[in-house]
Amino acid sequence: MRLIKQNFERDGSGLVTLFPEEPEDMWYAYNLIRPKDLLRASALRRVVTESATGSTSSTRVHTTLSIRVESLDFDPQSSQLHVSGRIAEETKFTKVGQYHTLDLELQRNFTLTKDGEEAWDSVARGIIKEACDPVRSADVWAVVMQEGLANLAVLTGARTVLRQRVEVSIPRKRGGRASDHDKGLEKFFQTTLDTLLRQVDLNESKPILLASPGFTASSFQKFIIDTATRTGNKALMAQKANLVVVHSSSGHLHALNEILQTPEVTARLKDTQYAREGKLMDEFMTLLRKDDGRAWYGPNEVEKAVEKGAVGRGGGVLLISNALFRAQDVAIRRRWVRLVDKVRDVEGGEVRTLSSEHESGKRLDGLGGIAAILTFPLDDLDEEDEEEEESEIPNGNTNGIRV
């Protein structure tokens, strides 16, 4: 993403003009645009004209429209973002109040205006900073496989995207028919490699994780190298050092979570964003199992921990899902923005906003989207909630969040 123009007022209102350059940028735009924002972008509009004789004809015209955002539709597989709302400025072809859906496109500017106090809050500005960072974490490719099944996924700085699924029927080894199995396996490897080559730019040097139960991944690695040697494909041979073979419990995509925790992968990806976030989630879960009062999750529990100064300098970490900042209710979003600002700017703690499209973010979403690692133990934060609820509801029967 390229920042073309930026103008913020003291009250937090203002506008930015951005130039999306790659599919990943649409993910950042999706997290940045909210209902009630004013979005201006190029559009294709169907216009109906009437002649002097009363006959009508319709044509599609290219124009630039401004809409007051009402809803967003993001397709993570194709990285397409559709933004719907009412037209806010009259043009030659449209009137104010008409509905239109803007399809944001790569290589085309769009301007986003946010009105009102604190509209461009610290989280929104942080998204722009991250999206426009030229040293954003590089992509990593992963092929999670088992015999007859391969899932090709790309891991970026913000999300995990399944790009292609390969399924090939492989005959079982029976008696003297082992050759049928070998032929089927070779066909499966060739199909998987062809699919991978359509997705990966061989001119770039990025890790390619090959994961499977048993020896399928190592056999596929050997097939890749043999194919590169046989065909004289120097670009493919140059990828040999980027191939990382690891064990997984299955060939399904959910196995990525365990794959990213293996020492081989951790060593290769130690400087990437999602590896750091995954390590923090592992640390949190370890503390949670110890039950020593240093790991809490849930909105009320974490807010109380922050109020007591336990998520600050000296190791305090706030883990929060970016899904919480997409709340349409401004008050709810502001609640989380202020919590983030307090931890980072007042208490001096670390804040990690985890993507709900990454494995670590999905784990956090399963805990309510918010958790914290404390600098000192606190007990009975959930019991305070129970006491409050029981005082409001006679014979209340509630369960705490901490386990």
Describe this structure in words.
This protein is an alpha+beta fold and 403 residues long. The chain has twelve helices and 16 strands. A seven-stranded antiparallel sheet has the order 1-2-7-3-4-5-6. Strands 10-9-8-11-12 form a five-stranded mixed sheet, with helices on one face. Strands 13-16-14-15 form a four-stranded mixed sheet, sandwiched between helices. Helix 1 packs antiparallel against helix 2 and helix 8 packs parallel to helix 11. It is flat. The two termini are 42 Å apart. The C terminus is likely disordered.
- How confident overall, as mean pLDDT? 86
Q: What is the H/E order? A: EEHEEEEEHEEEHEHHEHHHEHEHEHEH
- Which structural class is indicated by helix and strand composition? alpha+beta
The residue ranges in which pLDDT falls below 50 over 5 or more consecutive positions are 389-403
Shape: flat
Given the structure, what is the number of helices? Answer: 12
Helix content: 25-40%
Radius of gyration over all CA atoms, rounded: 26 Å
Amino- and carboxy-terminal Cα gap: 42 Å
- Count of β-strands: 16
* Biggest beta sheet attributes: 7 strands, antiparallel
Strand order of the largest sheet: 1-2-7-3-4-5-6
What percentage of the residues does DSSP assign to strands (E)?
Answer: 25-35%
Summary of the model, kept short:
By secondary structure, the protein is α+β, with helices and mostly antiparallel strands. The chain is built from twelve helices and 16 strands. Helix 1 packs antiparallel against helix 2 and helix 8 packs parallel to helix 11.
